[in-house]
Each structure stands twice: as structure tokens, then as C-alpha cells.
């Protein structure tokens, strides 16, 4: 098949199944879209909350596109303000974690898919 179409809001909210729904919604679209190399995540962080965990990728870079709301992203030791339609490229090896502003934060995340490439980083924002 040369194309696949899915509505991201119709996908399963993985945050709910992992007990993270008090902070966010997370819909992972790679499999639903039958994408072989590209990961796509629709992430909604609730107002005034932080993404459930920080993480980094050994190989993959990602692009974060703010669809709605505002907030901040911590990238290693730098905090970057975010507003609607900001796009941020995050290089491999960079630890990242999002924080929503008072209206929440809705982002699309695009990146190459590398199996087993993600590493969670505990106590990142405060560490």
C-alpha cells in the first residue's frame, strides 16, 4: 500500500493504559500508519503538568511541533520556551522533558524509529 490514513485522536491513549492519565495523553501512530522508519507521537500534556518522564535516544533525533498551548522543554541543561507552531529539533543523546503552561501543551513528535533506542532519565528536571 502506498499510503495509510489515520486520525490521531482515534488511536489508543497509551498514557491511560500506563497509569499516566493524570499528566498527559499519548498516542503513538507508527504502527497504525504502517510506518517502517518514522515514528509519530501525538502528546497532550495537561495544564501546569510535566511529561511523565524524561528520556533520550542514542540514535534517533526528533522534531517537536507545538500544535496548541504553550510551555517549556528542558533539553539537557537548557530550558526553552514553547508557543504555538514552534518546532524544535532535538539531537540524539539529548535528554528532553516537556512542561505545559496554564493552557496545556499539545505537540506532534516526529523521529526515525530505532528499536530499543529510548532510555528513561529519572529526576531529570530537578536533578
Provide an overview of this structure.
By secondary structure, this protein is mainly β. The chain has one domain: Jelly Rolls (Sandwich). Helices cover 3% and strands 48% of the residues. It contains 1 helix and 8 strands, in the order αββββββββ. The strands form 2 sheets. Strands 1, 2, 4, 5, 6 and 7 form a 6-stranded antiparallel β-sheet that branches. Strands 3-8 form a two-stranded antiparallel sheet. A hairpin with a 2-residue loop joins strand 4 and strand 5. The termini are far apart.
Task: Sum up the structure in keywords.
127 residues; mainly beta; Jelly Rolls; six-stranded antiparallel β-sheet; two-stranded antiparallel sheet; globular
Q: Total number of β-strand segments?
A: 8
> Domains counted in the coordinates: how many?
1
Number of alpha- plus pi-helical segments: 1
H/E element order = HEEEEEEEE
Say what the CATH topology is: Jelly Rolls
CATH superfamily: Jelly Rolls
Kindly report the average pLDDT value: 93
Coarse structural class: mainly beta
Strand content: over 45%
Return Rg in Å. 14 Å
Helix fraction? under 10%
Distance between the termini: 46 Å
Overall geometry = globular
**In terms of per-residue confidence, which ranges show pLDDT below 50 for 5 or more consecutive residues?**
none
CATH class equals Mainly Beta
CATH architecture: Sandwich
Largest sheet, if any? 6 strands, antiparallel
Amino acid at each position: 500500500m502506498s499510503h495509510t490514513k489515520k486520525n490521531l485522536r482515534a488511536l489508543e491513549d497509551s498514557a491511560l493504559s500506563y497509569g499516566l492519565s493524570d499528566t498527559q495523553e499519548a498516542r503513538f501512530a507508527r504502527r497504525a500508519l504502517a510506518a517502517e522508519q518514522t515514528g509519530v507521537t501525538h502528546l497532550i500534556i495537561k495544564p501546569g503538568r510535566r511529561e511523565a518522564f524524561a528520556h533520550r535516544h542514542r540514535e534517533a533525533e526528533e522534531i517537536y511541533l507545538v500544535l496548541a498551548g504553550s510551555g517549556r522543554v528542558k533539553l539537557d541543561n537548557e530550558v526553552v520556551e514553547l508557543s504555538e507552531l514552534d518546532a524544535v529539533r532535538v539531537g540524539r543523546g539529548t535528554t528532553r522533558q516537556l512542561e505545559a503552561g496554564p493552557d496545556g501543551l499539545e505537540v506532534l513528535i516526529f523521529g526515525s524509529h530505532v528499536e530499543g533506542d529510548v532510555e528513561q532519565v529519572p529526576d531529570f528536571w530537578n536533578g
